[in-house]
Each structure stands twice: as C-alpha cells, then as structure tokens.
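Action item from last meeting closed. Structure (330 res):
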C-alpha cells in the first residue's frame, strides 16, 4: 500500500489556529492524520524537511520507524530507520547514529542487533541510514559486494561516474542530521556515532574529522586502516582515484587519529577473535590502537574470544555500546 501524504495545514482541526500558535512539531509529510507520535513543542512548521513514512512498529514502548526522502547529497531516494524511545513522547532526546557495513541496508541493524531495548532504557533515539545511494543507474554499481551499491564507504567520491551520487560522508555528517533534527524531538547538542565493519570505519572517521560533533564513538570490527587493506584500496581507488593517495588518508581512521586535536574521545571497539576478516588483514585494529597510543587518544579494544563478524556478535555486546554512549549523552 502506497503511503498517503498528509499536510497538517489542511486538517480542519487546525484551520482555526494561526501557525504561530500551534504547539506541535510534526513531521511535515506523514502517513496518516492519527500518527502524532513525533509531535513536540515547536511553533515553526515551515522549515520541516520532507520525509515519507514507510513503516512503523511499536517496540519496547517506543516506535521503530522507517522513512524515505529525496537526498540532495546523493541525488536519489534514501531510506533510514529511526527508533523513537518512549521518552520522545514528552521531551527531546539524544541521538545515536549507526552506520552499517558492506552489503547492508537500513534494515540490518534495525532487525538484528537488538539495540532498541537499551535505547528505550536510556531514552536515546537511534538512527540507521542506508550504506550507499541506490538505483542511480551507474554502470557497474551492482557488480560486486564491496564497491558500489551497499558499499559507499562513507566518503565523498571525487571520481567519475561516482562523484555525483556517492557522497555518503556529507550525507551522514550533514544532510541526515539536519533532516533528523528538523523532524524529530532531538536534543541537537547530544549526538554520538557507532557502526560495524565498513560502518565502524565510517563512525571513526566521522568522529575524528568533526571534533566536538559527536559526544562519543564506538565500533564493532571496524575497518581501521583502509589505505592498507584490500577492501579500502579497492574502494578508495574507485571513489577517490589512485593518483592522489594523500587524499585517501583523510578517510582513514588510523591516519586521522594521529593528528586529532579536538575534545577528548573515549573510543570503544569490540573485535571478535574468530572474525574471518581479521587474519587476512581487512580490519587492522592493532594499527589503530598503535596510532591512538601515539596521539594519546583513549581507546579500549576488547578482543572477544570465539566471536565472528556477524550480527550474533553485535547482538551480544550491543548493550555495552549503548551504555557507553549513554554515559556521554546525559
């Protein structure tokens, strides 16, 4: 069933009210007049950025929703999941951004990690975007699992034909937060970031490249040193070009942490010892820890015996990560 657009200004219940007197902050485009879960005090309805609700499910007394919107950075329709904890009914809440890994969509973390229970406990909104633009009709975009669709690597591509659409770094650090802040009851001064694998790489670089934007950062099995691993070399060659490898360092957490000069970070990383991508050198957590030691950046790397690269691993330790962020989002 296609979503139906609903404009509050057309609701007869509100036509006798001047816009300046309205007490509700509601998503400007929603699916039904009855869905007022995201209303919060804010009189300005003109500046809402349009989103369309795709789905909504009650979960731990909050709502797990999915929205789509037309992205100005990626030049296509993008989707993101958002968990609104029960506390969001009555106040603004901090927000945790989650970046997923290779081949994932906005749904993997939402349906498999089990984060909502702990987000509800701490009153944290959780936002999970897609991992790349979709349906851009770029030749080769669906040819491999580790480049193109589902593999945006959270960079702003500079090479044709990718540079028009593959701007995931700008999307997750600028466009998406602006969209979320515009439409949901977010405490804009309190946001953190986390992710897995490619998304762990994304979370680390976003925090390191934007000092002070995120209160905390954590990662599961992140690609810590992409300029020195096969996944990263393939992605950076395609998106950033092979001539200027100095530009690659601007999207490499191990390089970035060496020159980090922002508010203190307390980085939490969980890595499974049985991860089949660890030994082949795709993840390189020891390189990142060494760089953190050099720059005196606080990092905790927990090597977890017997755990692999899957969501079984993440579901086991997601409570620890939500608790970690909750300390900094109070």
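Sequence:
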């Amino acid at each position: 069933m296609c979503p139906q657009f609903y404009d509050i200004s057309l609701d007869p219940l509100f036509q006798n009210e001047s816009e300046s007197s309205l007490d509700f902050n509601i998503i400007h485009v929603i699916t039904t007049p009855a869905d007022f879960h995201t209303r919060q005090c804010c009189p300005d309805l003109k500046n809402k950025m349009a989103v369309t609700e795709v789905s909504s499910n009650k979960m731990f007394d909050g709502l797990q929703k999915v929205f789509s919107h037309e992205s100005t950075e990626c030049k296509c329709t993008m989707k993101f999941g958002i968990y609104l904890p029960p506390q969001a009914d009555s106040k603004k809440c901090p927000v945790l951004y989650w970046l997923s890994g290779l081949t994932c969509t906005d749904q993997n973390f939402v349906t498999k990690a089990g984060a909502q229970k702990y987000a509800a406990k701490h009153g944290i909104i959780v936002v999970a975007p897609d991992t790349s633009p979709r349906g851009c009709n770029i030749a080769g975009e669906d040819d491999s699992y580790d480049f193109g669709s589902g593999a945006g690597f959270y960079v702003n591509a500079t090479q044709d034909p990718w540079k028009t659409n593959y701007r995931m770094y700008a999307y997750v650090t600028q466009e998406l937060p602006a969209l979320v802040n515009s439409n949901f009851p977010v405490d804009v001064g309190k946001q953190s970031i986390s992710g897995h694998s490619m998304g762990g790489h994304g979370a680390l670089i976003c925090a390191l490249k934007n000092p002070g934007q995120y209160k905390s950062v954590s990662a599961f099995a992140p690609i810590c040193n992409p300029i020195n691993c096969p996944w990263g070399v393939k992605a950076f060659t395609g998106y950033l070009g092979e001539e200027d490898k100095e530009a690659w360092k601007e999207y490499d957490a191990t390089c970035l942490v060496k020159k980090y000069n922002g508010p203190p970070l307390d980085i939490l990383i969980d890595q499974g010892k049985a991860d089949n991508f660890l030994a082949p050198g795709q993840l390189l957590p020891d390189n990142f820890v060494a760089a953190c030691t050099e720059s005196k950046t606080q990092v905790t790397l927990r090597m977890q015996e017997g755990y692999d690269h899957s969501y079984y691993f993440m579901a086991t330790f997601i409570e620890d990560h939500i608790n970690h962020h909750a300390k900094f989002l109070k």
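Note appended to the action item: Strands lie at 52-59, 62-70, 77-84, 93-99, 125-129, 186-196, 217-220, 266-272, 298-304.
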